[in-house]
Nucleoside diphosphate kinase (Paramormyrops kingsleyae), 161 residues
Amino acid sequence: RSYGTEGAGGLSERTLIAVKPDGVQRRLVGQIIQRFEKRGFKLVGLKMLKAPEELLSQHYHDLSKKPFYPSLLRYMGSGPLVVMVWEGYNVVSTSRKMVGDTNPAEAPPGSIRGDFSIHISRNVVHASDSLDGAQREIQLWFNCKELTDWDCHDQSSTFHL
Ligand code: IDP
Ligand code: MG
C-alpha cells in the first residue's frame, strides 16, 4: 500500500507532525493531538523521544547552511519531542494550514502557531511541507512496524465484532 495522491485520490496520504520541546514543556501535546483528531485525521503512529543530534541533522539537512541551524538543533534536542504520523485526505497540505506560517508573527489566529507561539525560534510544532518530504520524514522517524493501519469502526470489515 502506498501513501501518495494516486489510487484513493489522496485518501490515505500521510504526514509527519511533531510537537517540539517547547510544546511538550508547555503541556500542549493533548491540545495539538486534539486538533488533528477533531479535524478528522487518523493517528497511525506516535512516540516520544529525545532525538539524537544525528537524527535532527538528517531531519533538517536542507537547512544546514542557515545561520540559525546550530541553534535550531540545540532547540530541537533540548527536550523530548512527540512525533506522530497522521493519515487522511490531503493531510500534508491541510496540516500545514492548521500549523500556520513558520514565523508565528505571520501565523493566523486559529492556527496552532498563531494560537500558541510568538517567536520563530520557538514555534511549538513541525509539519512536513510536501508529499515527498512527508515520505522521507516518516521513514526517518518511524520503523514501518511502528505504524499501525486501522479501520474506522463503522467500516464493513470491522462492523461485525
Ligand atoms: P517549517 O517548520 O515551517 O517547515 P522551515 O523553513 O522548514 O519551517 O524551518 C524549520 C524550522 O527552523 C522552523 O520551524 C523554525 O523552528 C526554525 N527556523 C526557521 N527559520 C528560522 C529563523 O529565521 N530563525 C530561527 N529559527 C528558524
Ligand atoms: Mg520545513
